[in-house]
Amino acid sequence: MAGFADDVAVLASRLELTTVAEDFSGVAPFEVRMGAEQRVPFVFSSPHSGRFYPERFLAMARLDSTAIRRSEDCYVDELFGAVVALGAPLLAANFPRAYLDVNREPWELDPRMFAEPVPSYCNIRSARVAGGLGTVPRLVGEGLDIYAGRLPLAEAVARIETVYKPYHETLKRLIARTHAGFGYAVLIDCHSMPASVRVGDSGFRPDFIVGDRFGTAASAALTERAISLLSAMGYTVAHNKPYAGGFITEHYGRPARRLHALQVEVNRGLYMNERTLQKTIGFPALAEDLARFSADLMAMPDHHFLDLPLAAE
């Protein structure tokens, strides 16, 4: 794709990549939280809980400081924070989802957002782009437009080159190191969902949704164990509906290669006020339950991840 590098170079010349880098000159765009030693073959990620909103980004946005947080997976990195003491690394975004969504393909862009035509290699027809939730989102939750006008295409390129790609390079390294050290790796991708989410015609309200891309991203034993643990704690759990896992789960889950990925969605109504974005009295108990859930999940015997039939890919 010779034109790809040329396009990036031209766009970067219009908007220096350092402009976006300066958005995070005081706060790293993401961080790896881990102890001195990784003791388990698990990696946790929280790609949507970032809550540092760069001033330059806020100046572009038409939303106030509360409305722009409607897509944020508030406090999910804290809910799963106990995994670090349990011996697993946690990759946590500091950049907000409204700024950049790393749970998308790298070039899943909405051409309606930009002043220039997007390059031909961009995926402009995905359901996520149609819904305003591409790599550089057009909307936040509740269907609110983020920007008053069109952005320079170079802005999207800079965010992808400066933040998206380094985030995924870091995640890949964590997974590869885990796989090399333990013989397999398990990625738990942590998210939250609105309390209004319902499943099917019955109107079933799940406390959790466990997604494994319909069995393609993780061993069945891992999925079944996750659902069983949460159900035993008294929570209602759905499987793959309406969230089966996004790009991260789909891209990194390769059970035939001993790489497993599971998405866990937590109902925000369990731990926060969605209007004020403040934690409620349910937060500490939920965090304690998730610490126990994570510990029990990480205690699964190795054979559930190693003794799988090889499959052509």
Which helices and strands occur, and which strands form pairs?
Elements: H1 2-14, H2 17-23, E1 30-33, E2 42-46, H3 55-60, H4 76-79, E3 90-93, H5 127-130, E4 139-140, E5 144-145, H6 153-182, E6 185-193, E7 208-211, H7 220-232, E8 237-239, H8 247-252, E9 259-267, E10 272-273, E11 278-279, H9 283-298, H10 303-306
Parallel strand pairs: 2-3, 2-6, 6-9, 7-8
Antiparallel strand pairs: 1-3, 4-5, 7-9, 10-11
Task: Describe the protein's architecture and organization.
The chain is of the alpha/beta class and about 325 residues long. The longest helix has 30 residues, at about 155-180. Helix 1 (about 1-15) packs across helix 6 and helix 2 crosses helix 6. The protein has helices at about 1-15, 15-25, 55-60, 75-80, 125-130, 155-180, 220-230, 245-250, 285-300, 305, and strands at about 30-35, 40-45, 90-95, 140, 145, 185-195, 210, 235-240, 260-265, 270-275, 280. Strands 1-3-2-6-9-7-8 form a 7-stranded mixed β-sheet, sandwiched between helices. A two-stranded antiparallel sheet has the order 4-5. It is built from 10 helices and 11 strands.
